[in-house]
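FORM 7B: Structural annotation worksheet

SECTION A. Query
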Amino acid sequence: MARWALAAAVAFSTLAAAAGGSPSDAAVATQAQALLDQTARPDAPGMELLIARGDRVLFHAARGSAEIELGVPLRTGQVYRIASITKMFTAAEVLKLAEQGRVSLDDTLDKYLPDFPNASHIRLRQLLNHTAGISDVAKNPQPGFFARKLDTATLLAQVASRDPAFAPGTQQSYSNGGYAVLGAVIEKVTGKPWHEAIREQLLEPLGLRQTGYGDNAAIIPGRVAGYTTDTPDHGVRNASYINASVPAAAGAFVSTAEDLFHWMRALTGGKVIGNAWFAQMTTPASLPAGVTSAHPYGLGVYLWQVRGKPMIGHTGQIDGFASAVAYVPSAQVTVVVLANDDHTDARTLARRLAALAMGEPYDTPVAVSLSKAELDALQGSYRIDGATLETLSVKDGQLFAQRTGRHAVPLQATAQGRLYFVPDELSYFQPVHDAQGKVIRLDYVEGGDAPAQSWPRVDATP
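SECTION B. Predicted structure
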């Protein structure tokens, strides 16, 4: 595998260089197929990948099993749960209603849901950009809740029972509950189930016939089975059951790679909402002085960077499935990742595909072995901030990184001296040594190309 990865990395660099930073369609397809072959096995849960430049699809392929028990292979055009990518559609529907003058983004929630706690202080815009303070922590968790079929009123009551996470507008924290509330607002304004309103106003006019509410009981042609490898032995298990009515407007949709590609082209091309409304959608939330967001977010879209260029989109993760859709405006590159394993890092794959299509592919980590002395030299704690440490430790010859309050994650070293997460993560650590060879700090590069963060060593032992 290491020899293959090294050969692939060399091939990727050669193809990009030969194209002068703008790879040909054939080069993109070759690189993407190599990445797919490396990432998915035919007899395991897999994925479907799509890359397009403008309206032209450069690569579209699937690899893996759609139904392991029956030996059904994945093929292009199949239907996956897309989880939180649903939020893009919910947000676009609210913006469409605002464009039509039926709501205002600055309306307070009490105009539509007067009985919701603190409704007079929560604005629709804050629900859209996760600054409303709606918590995702259930106050009294009920056994079997995720398997129940809920109506909107029951779900809304459950969200309303939670203690607020913070005062509206003071912070930003991702909230599924906030989007469940937006679903109730859509129903109040349109008089229809939230997903029916989206289907009629957004999906049908665009011809997106395979996108919509993923009713568990419905027969949906081409729907694939979901699995998880997030298990102690990384073995494959059937995913836990979750009724689509629970994630609701925050994550209940299913779709295909083709539909998501056409959706992004329509949304970014002014065919869903007008350009002025789309500009609002892609503007980061306004936060109080001194408050920052680790993951900038607009109205229903993440605002990422890839190779120093803006990239918009969303990820989704739900029992059995992981997904990502992204668009790089400067290169007109669209990428879609759909996987039927909820342990898949769809966001990293999307970033890799986008960079590849831009002619700036990320390095493929090629693991090398470290001696016991080299491993021992890395062990220790490194300070991120006043309350957080990154601790490196060794167990049975394997190097691990563990951030305060999180699980330990295995690391792999490369010939360049970098430490990457396993199995594949663009972010890496670069150990820095003093003149005597002692490791004195870790430089952390998030996403593979962000400015390095320097974390000084504060403890010589794990």
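SECTION C. Observations
Residues 1-20 have pLDDT under 50 and may be disordered. Residues 2-18 form the longest helix (17 residues).

SECTION D. Sign-off
Analyst initials: ____
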